[in-house]
Design a protein that fits this description.
mainly alpha; 2 strands; two-stranded antiparallel ribbon; 183 residues
């Protein structure tokens, strides 16, 4: 079994100080998986965000892709292309595939969940091109994009089922974080 990335919720918030404000959560010494489980029951949308930060980048992008497919399957060719680029990077985390996903995500409609999955993959590296020179990617960019992808997809679900569907996605993310998910 893989080692959990952050043992406690506080460890996560110390690694990503901006997550506290983004998610509007207080640090806790509670174990990160127990914290996530509690959030899942009380605030599914916040649990999505916490899980996005909890997972390593590659697993987070995979989780976003799977969640988008289950919540709001891509309909247009543009959405399918964006999701395929993110999934390709997860399967082969090579620099050229990451940059291809970034390019697709930057050019696609930012109202689509699949676009944010592509951006999550694109932002999973150390740098990105900007005005013909590389700039550092902030370490929380992938988590922010994963959160956006899943919440956008969730917003397109039937409101009667939305919370339950988001909870299912978070539970899948928790299994990934614990190192015992099956693809």
């Amino acid at each position: 079994m893989a080692r959990l990335r952050f043992e406690t919720a506080r460890d996560l918030f110390e690694a990503f100080p901006g997550a506290k404000e983004t998610l509007m959560l207080e640090p806790s010494d509670c174990g990160s998986l127990a914290f996530l489980e509690s959030l899942t029951e009380s605030a599914a949308e916040k649990a999505v965000g916490f899980c996005a930060y909890l997972l390593p980048r590659r697993e987070a992008v995979w989780w976003a892709c799977q969640s988008v497919k289950s919540l709001d399957p891509p309909g247009s060719k543009e959405e399918q292309r964006a999701l395929a680029a993110a999934e390709q990077w997860v399967k082969e985390p090579e620099e050229e595939l990451r940059l291809a996903a970034l390019k697709i995500g930057q050019a696609a409609n930012h109202e689509h969940a699949a676009t944010w999955a592509a951006l999550a993959a694109g932002w999973a590296g150390g740098t990105m091109p900007f005005e013909d020179k590389p700039v550092a990617v902030p370490p929380d960019q992938t988590a922010k994009a994963v959160r956006a992808a899943i919440l956008i997809a969730g917003a397109r679900c039937d409101p009667k089922n939305r919370t339950d569907l988001l909870k299912q996605c978070v539970r899948q993310g928790a299994r990934l974080a614990a190192g015992n998910a099956k693809e």
